[in-house]
Amino acid sequence: xxxxxxxxxxxxxxxxxxxxxxxxxxxxxxxxxxxxxxxxxxxxxxxxxxxxxxxxxxxxxxxxxxxxxxxxxxxxxxxxxxxxxxxxxxxxxxxxxxxxxxxxxxxxxxxxxxxxxxxxxxxxxxxxxxxxxxxxxxxxxxxxxxxxxxxxxxxxxxxxxxxxxxxxxxxxxxxxxxxxxxxxxxxxxxxxxxxxxxxxxxxxxxxxxxxxxxxxxxxxxxxxxxxxxxxxx
Length: 233
Fold this sequence. Notes:
Layout lengths: L3 H7 L7 H7 L3 H6 L8 H22 L5 H12 L1 H10 L10 H5 L6 H19 L1 H19 L8 H12 L5 E8 L6 E8 L2 E8 L2 H22 L1
Antiparallel strand pairs: 1-2, 2-3
Helix pairs in contact: 2-8, 4-5, 4-8, 4-9, 6-8, 8-9, 9-10, 10-11
């Protein structure tokens, strides 16, 4: 098991107060078995949870100005959910450095998502107390970006227009624009054709019984073409 200093170097973190880092790595099961331990990481977990909620919200507000509140809320939830924070923890091998009680360790606690999530939140709480909110923000920015890119693929979270918007704003710094380019059929069976442009370039086209449905189809067409381009690359 790595020492706190070894873990910090591995995770590319710097702590002025190593005691804070040690506390962030101390699970309550360890304190229960070692009476000389002063405090577990649960209070730091509370603080880190609040910091991550704020920073993820600020990141999304800044990078996706066209998103409505509902979309922002769903995307923020995907960034700070248990499974995502546990994945962040796994990337920096946090589990190997947690101080766990013997029983917790033997039953797979170092790989348990809920425990890893809590440990990661505690780590961010400790980093905030040690170096301020900007240090936490700097550490999290590339992780938020990667998590947003992954969330873009989750059709259960976002419809095609939202996923295309996330991609366009994240990769090109532009918001998709939709234009009705054609109307077909009689009044009782009208079909709309909509094109979607990003940075002035038509990226997809779709047809539907309403402009909204056609726009969704156009966004899906654009995403399909983007996926084909990515595969070819």
